[in-house]
């Protein structure tokens, strides 16, 4: 089960959905027909040790491995009921069965205890062994060595990764990878969200138990302190793991090349437009300065013309005054002679 790829898992879920639709179409009771609890039980599954309950896959034990975190409380309830009816020790009393039948029944009860409690279920979902295996099988840079511009391959490889990681988000809705034609704003919003991803994922489920039979408070305090330290370390590593995934996705995203080209063209267009406006403004300024110069020259010419006219008028007046003075002088000289 853990060797399934993202696509194979999605295919299995889709086939199960179609199977349920077909059954519901036959008029079966929907509550009894949730398609859960009927998965094949492997020999290894039936040999689980209830003392090692933290290592068991609770979804697989209840026959919910095709749904996992998507299983509803109703499906968990019905799956548990089916398993109890099949494996209850009282039902098998007097029948030939292996000595591990009672042990597997305890595994069923523990699986129900965990998945029927929202807090315990969330802790288990944080370290679900199925998805933990998939986290180690994500794309790498080497997978894109000869496919740098293959948009379909990029989306096919990375979209399921973000769909898987999205289940841990504190915020909803969670933006998915999208398509090649997504606008610049959408692509940037996607990376902004994932670079600031708020995860509710925790690692309490992996805490070590206090040594069995120990009543020492010192042992308890030491174990609690160590568990707290380990949880913090795993949280940091998980945050770094997701950050590395986003970094790698961004570095391989063929949309970024398209966006950079669009931004370059926009800058050039803006620069061209700005340059055109500057030339027009310079031309208008030169024409205005020319107009002002011509107006000033005209005003100066008119002022000089007026000044010349005034000077000519003053010169004529002076000449007339001198002429008049000479006439008066000759007249006076004539009177004295007589």
From TrEMBL:
An example molecular function term from Gene Ontology annotations = Hsp70 protein binding
What's an example GO cellular component term for this entry? Answer: cytosol
Provide ranges: composition bias, Acidic residues: 29-41
Q: Read off the CDD domains from this record.
A: DnaJ (cd06257)
* Positions of region (Disordered): 1-41, 212-238, 256-338
Q: Name one GO biological process term.
A: regulation of translational fidelity
Query: What's the protein here called?
Result: J domain-containing protein
């Amino acid at each position: 089960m853990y060797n399934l790829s993202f696509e194979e898992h999605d295919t299995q879920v889709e086939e199960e959905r179609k199977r349920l639709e077909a059954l519901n179409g036959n008029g079966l009771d929907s509550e009894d027909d949730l398609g859960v609890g009927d998965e094949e039980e492997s020999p290894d599954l039936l040999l689980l040790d209830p003392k090692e309950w933290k290592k068991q896959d609770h979804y697989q034990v209840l026959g919910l491995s095709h749904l996992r975190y998507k299983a509803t409380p109703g499906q968990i309830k019905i799956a548990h009921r089916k398993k109890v009816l099949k494996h209850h020790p009282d039902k098998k009393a007097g029948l030939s069965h292996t000595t591990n039948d009672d042990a597997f029944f305890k595994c069923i009860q523990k699986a129900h205890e965990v998945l029927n409690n929202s807090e315990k279920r969330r802790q288990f979902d944080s370290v679900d062994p199925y998805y933990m295996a998939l986290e180690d099988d994500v794309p790498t840079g080497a997978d894109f060595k000869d496919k740098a511009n293959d948009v379909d391959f990029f989306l096919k490889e990375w979209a399921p990764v973000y769909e898987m990681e999205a289940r841990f988000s504190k915020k909803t809705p969670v933006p998915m990878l999208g398509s090649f034609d997504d606008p610049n704003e959408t692509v940037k919003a996607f990376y902004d969200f994932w670079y600031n991803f708020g995860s509710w994922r925790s690692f309490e489920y992996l805490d070590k138990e206090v040594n069995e039979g120990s009543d020492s408070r010192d042992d308890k305090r030491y174990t609690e302190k160590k568990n707290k330290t380990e949880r913090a370390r795993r949280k940091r590593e998980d945050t770094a793991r997701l950050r590395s995934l986003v970094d790698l996705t961004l570095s391989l995203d063929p949309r970024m090349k398209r966006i950079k080209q669009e931004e370059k063209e926009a800058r050039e267009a803006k620069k061209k437009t700005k340059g055109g406006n500057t030339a027009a403004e310079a031309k208008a300024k030169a024409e205005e300065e020319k107009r002002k110069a011509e107006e000033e020259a005209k005003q100066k010419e008119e002022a000089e013309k007026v000044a010349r006219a005034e000077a000519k008028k003053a010169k004529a007046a002076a000449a007339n005054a001198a002429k008049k003075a000479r006439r008066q002088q000759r007249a006076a000289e004539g009177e004295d002679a007589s």
